[in-house]
C-alpha cells in the first residue's frame, strides 16, 4: 500500500504536528510541498477542492481525504505497524481526546497568534498572545497535577497523540512572544517529549536538548 | 524594594541537570542552569558576545552554550570555546557575569543585590516541592491573597512566607519578578500524601482568581 500523502508547508505549525506524529509513530509519509507564503498555493482551486477552508495540512490516503489535524493524527496512529500512541485504557484514551480537542478548539488561538506575528495574518496580536498565554497556563496547571500523580504525559504515564499536538504550540511560543520562563512543568514535559524516539524539529525549534 | 539577602528563583526539582531557564528578579534578567554534575548556576542572562539571552542556550556537560554563535561557558563563567575560532585560546577576560547562588529547602537561591558576595546560607528544611506559581500581580498582592487561598495565617521571614495551612505547613519562596509580576515557589514541610498535594494545587490555582486573573473562557 502506498504511503499517506500530506500537503505540507514546512513553516506551518499544524503541518509540523503531522510530520512529528508520523515520525514518532514510525509511519512513512509522502510530502507534497506547497508554497503557502508567498505563493498562496493553499487557496488554489486544486487545493480547495480537497480542503474547502483552505487550511493546511490535508492528509490523503486511498481515497480518504482528511482536513482536521486531530483526525489525521488518529488515522496515522491507527495504521498497521504504527507505534502505540493511543492509550488502551478507556479513561486515558478519553483524556487524550479531551486534550486533543483543547488543542484544536482552544489553543487554535496560538496558531492564530503565530500566523499574526510571523506571517502578517489579520488579527489582534496582543489579545491573541494574552489568550494563548492564559491557555498555556491551564496546560501548565494540568502538567503540574500530572507530575504530582507520577504521570509524565498529558493523558497518563505514556506518550500519546495529545502530547504531540500540544508540544507544537508550546515549543513554538517564542515565535509569538511567549517565552518558557513561566512554565516549569511544561519545560520538564517538553524535554521528555523531545527525548522520545522519532522526535523531529522544525524551524523555530532548536534541535539541541 | 530590594531586601538584601537570599532570594528564591526556582524550585530545585524544576531545573533538571543539563537544562537552563530564564527568570526575572526585580526586572533583572537572570539565567539559572544546572550542569550534568548537578550544580546550579545563576548568572546574568546575557551572553558576553552580543548580549543574547543565555537562557535560550543549552547545557552540555559542565558548560552552557549560547544558542546564537555557540560560545561555551564553564561554571566559573569563563568562556572556554568559540566555534568560529576553534584554535583560539580564549582570553580569560571573556566571562559571563555570575552571581552567588545556592540551594536549600528545595529551592535555588541567588544573593541580592546581584553580584554581591554571598552572606550566610539561607535556612534549610526538609520539604516536598508543590509548584511554582507565576502571577501577573505585584508580590505584595500575591502575599495578601495567600492566607485566603490556603486558609491559614502567614508569617513573612525575608523572602520566605511560612503559612500554617492546618494539615500541612507551607514554606513559600517569594520572588518579585518585576514591579507588576511575582512568583511563589510553594513547598510543604515533610512528605504530605498525594491527596493533600492535589488539594494544595487546587488552592494555588484558585489563588490566580483571588489575585484577579480572569478565566480564559
Ligand atoms: S551572542 Fe552568544 S555567542 Fe554570539
Automatic annotation (TrEMBL), chain B:
Keyword Phosphoprotein tagged: no
SUPFAM superfamilies: ISP domain
A GO molecular function held by the record: iron ion binding
InterPro entries reported in the protein's UniProt record: ARHD_Rieske_2Fe_2S (IPR015881), Cholesterol_7-desaturase (IPR050584), Rieske_2Fe-2S (IPR017941), Rieske_2Fe-2S_sf (IPR036922)
Rieske domain residues: 6-110
Domain of life: Bacteria
Family matches, as Pfam families: Rieske
Keywords assigned: 2Fe-2S, Iron, Iron-sulfur, Metal-binding, Oxidoreductase
PANTHER family given in the database record: 3-KETOSTEROID-9-ALPHA-MONOOXYGENASE, OXYGENASE COMPONENT, IRON-SULFUR DOMAIN CONTAINING PROTEIN
Protein name (record): Rieske 2Fe-2S domain-containing protein
